[in-house]
């Protein structure tokens, strides 16, 4: 079936560092969604991308929809402690199709 | 309410019992999704509805799982004859139109 592959699985960084993570698929996506999940909470949408090549920012977060429509990346600049959590990419293959999630990238910030 | 609500928040049951998990979406939201999430994993798609119509149930693991949304609002996910492997967090999400999902707090199911 369709799968979203996220890398890295985990990241350990120092506060203030920039972070980059990506999501790839063997299938074409028309929409890329990036979510963050805090412990004990449900995922919360961070950024939605709708067009190949689109680059969208939300504060310190920037995400891009890959030209091939098979990948996307999320960057976080100048990380802070509250950035800790699990970041998921997600998307539907087509309009009105089921939305599937990757397995997530776990971000840890070292004290 | 302002967000998606789910009940119960925690459910402990004995193997073989049936359970019903409820999702109350944001008022007016067209689509409603059910996911299952194991600890440390991403949400695993189960099924989704547009209004009252079940659009895709390909993620339901087997025929012990069923879902309904009879009036296009509240949805119930039912698991019959529960097994220990059914233990997980069950999450519901609703969307107005498009792809922006709003997730509920989840129901933590534990099957003993």
What's the arrangement of secondary structure elements?
The complex is a heterodimer of chains A (111) and B (112).
Chain A: E1 5-7, E2 10-14, E3 19-24, E4 32-37, E5 44-49, E6 55-58, E7 61-65, E8 71-76, E9 85-92, E10 99-101, E11 105-110
Parallel strand pairs in A: 2-11
Antiparallel strand pairs in A: 1-3, 3-8, 4-5, 4-9, 6-7, 7-8, 9-10, 9-11
Chain B: E1 5-7, E2 10-13, E3 19-24, E4 31-37, E5 44-50, E6 53-56, E7 65-68, E8 75-79, E9 88-95, E10 102-103, E11 107-111
Parallel strand pairs in B: 2-11
Antiparallel strand pairs in B: 1-3, 3-8, 4-5, 4-9, 5-6, 7-8, 9-10, 9-11
Description:
The complex is a heterodimer of chains A (111) and B (112). Chain A has 111 residues and is an all-beta fold. Helices cover 0% and strands 52% of the residues of chain A. In chain A, β9 and β10 form a beta hairpin. The radius of gyration of chain A is 13 Å and the shape is globular. The termini of chain A are far apart. Chain B has 112 residues and is an all-beta fold. In chain B, the strands form 2 sheets. In chain B, strands 2, 4, 5, 6, 9, 10 and 11 form a 7-stranded mixed sheet that branches. A 4-stranded antiparallel sheet of chain B has the order 1-3-8-7, with no helix packed on it. The model of chain B has no long low-confidence stretch (mean pLDDT 93). Chain A binds chain B through residues 31, 33, 41-45, 48, 88, 90-92, 96-104, 106, and chain B through 33, 35, 40-45, 48, 50, 55-56, 58-59, 91, 93, 99-106.
